[in-house]
Structures are given as C-alpha cells and as structure tokens.
Amino acid sequence: MTSNPGKHALPGAEHSTRDILVIIPTYNEAENIETVVANVLEASDRVDVLVVDDGSPDGTGALVDAIAAQTTRVRVMHRGGKQGLATAYLQGFEYGHERGYDYLFEFDADGSHPAQRLPALIDELDGGADLVIGSRWVPGGATENWPLSRQLLSRAASVYCRVLLRSDIRDITAGYRGYRAEELRKFDLSPVTSAGYCFQIEMAWMFERVRKRVVEVPITFVERELGQSKMSRAIIIEAIWRVASWGAGYRARGLEYRLTGN
How many helices (H) and strands (E) in the chain? Predict the structure, then answer.
C-alpha cells in the first residue's frame, strides 16, 4: 500500500499500516455505535474505522471520540448537522483515497450488518472483485426479525431496480459493500447526486454499467434492536423516481458515467 497523506486529513490521523477503511456514517446512534465499532475491529486486523458523525445530538460523536482516544484504528469526522448518507460516504471515500487505503467499505451504524461476514467480503476483493456487496437476496442470504411486509417491499424494490436498470445485481439497494479504491477513484463522482439510500443503487449500477466486476456475498441482515430507523417516505419516493429516470435515460441515450482513468 502506497502512503498518500492528504492535506485534509483529520487531526492526529497519521497514515495507517492497515489497508482497509470501513466508513460508518452516524446520526443519533449512541445506543449502537460502541458495539458496532468493536465488532468491525474484531472482524479483521486489516481494518481501520472512520465514523462520519453529523453532529448527533445524542452524543454519538463524543462516544466515538472516546474510542478513538484509545486506539489509532478509529477516527471521527465531525460534520455540522445532518448532511445525509451520500455525502458522508463521498467524504469518507475522499479521506480513504488521501490516506492510501486499498479497499473502502460502507457499513451501517445500527447493528444490521453482520461484521463477522467482513472477512468473506474482503476475500472477494482480494480475489479480484471491484465491488463486493453483502446480499440478502442471493442463495444463503436472509433477513432476521423482518415482518413479511418489509421483506416483500425490499424484494419488490430490488426487482423494480433490476428491471428498469437492466441490472443483474440481485440486492442493488444493499448498503453493506466494499470497493476496490483504485477502481472507485477512476470515476468522476460529481454527477452522483442521490441522497439517502438511493445512493447505493446509483453507485452499484455505475460499476455494473462500465463492466467492473461486481460480486454478491450472502449475509443475514438483522433488523436493528435499538434506536430509530432513518428510512422515510421521502427516501422511498426519491428511489422510485430516480430509478425510473435513470432507466429511461439509459435506454434513450446510452448515457454512461464518466471515467477519469482506464
């Protein structure tokens, strides 16, 4: 791994000898964040964690500051107010590129993503995948503590996206994923304007459309036990209209994302 410290590095965040950065956006996750960070660190000794906190009024950021004071494997990016999932990840990617990490992972702060499956996802990137997705809807994947109505809604959303976008990704809305950093940085991400969870759809489809290698690994997604879900009607509506517009534009104009490299 090549050292590449960035001018916007966080205070005290010296370049790490580990090659994987797990980015965890947070807003009011004080009940979950300590356990989630501990589980991620335990899953692989190749991993550092960057928590991107949007000024959580419940003290999430302060809790992670306390963790970071005890280990160089954890850092916190404090942002002024709720700015959203997509910008948290985009800023996390920038931080990861500046620090020279090989793989950049997205990870939820609510305990729904099984950290014990992280080594399996890492293995796929080690084996040549450009994007690996922890999938609920491939053989071996599952959900836990979900009512039937939510399972049907999630599956319907995946089918909707696959049909309109002509995608082969079975769980394109999934947020548990890892990118090969050298491939991610080839994209010009300035056209990425999605907010919320629609960001996941756009990013995965971006990789698929230019024929990057996308691999899905089965996981069991566990519904949060503590705290409040960030899902809202606005997020769902955004996904519906954006996917429809992307699909229509792609078929009509052959629109492609811009690459900054090969």
Answer: 8, 9
Q: Can you tell me the distance from the alpha carbon of 174 to that of 176, in angstroms, rounded to the nearest whole number?
A: 6
Which residues are CB-contacts of 5 (< 8 A; sequence separation ≥ 6)? 15, 98, 99, 100
Residue 203 · residue 187 · CB < 8 Å: no
CA 108 to chain centre: 7
Task: Let me know the angle formed at the C-alpha of 117 by 34 and 98, rounded to the nearest 5 degrees.
Answer: 65
d(CA 255, CA 239): 19
Please write the tens of the pLDDT for every residue from 237-259. Answer: 766 767 777 776 654 444 555 66
Write the CA distances from 56 to 85, 90, 224, integer angstroms: 13, 19, 18
Give Cα separations from 163 to 32, 56, 138, 167, 188 (angstroms).
Answer: 35, 37, 17, 7, 26
How does pLDDT run across 198-245, given as a tens digit for each residue?
Answer: 899 999 999 999 999 999 999 999 985 554 554 556 666 766 767 777
Contact call for residues 161 and 242 (beta carbons, < 8 A) = no
Tokens 């300035």: give the residue: 190
Global confidence as pTM: 0.86
DSSP 184-252: HTTB--TT----TTHHHHHHHHHHHHTT--EEEEE-EEE--SSS-----HHHHHHHHHHHHHHHHHHHH
Contact between 4 and 98 under an 8 Å Cβ cutoff? The reply is yes
List strand residue ranges (DSSP E) for the chain, in order. 20-26, 47-53, 74-78, 103-106, 131-135, 142-144, 177-180, 214-218, 220-222
* Amino acid type, 40: V
Q: Do 145 and 223 touch, CB atoms closer than 8 A?
A: yes
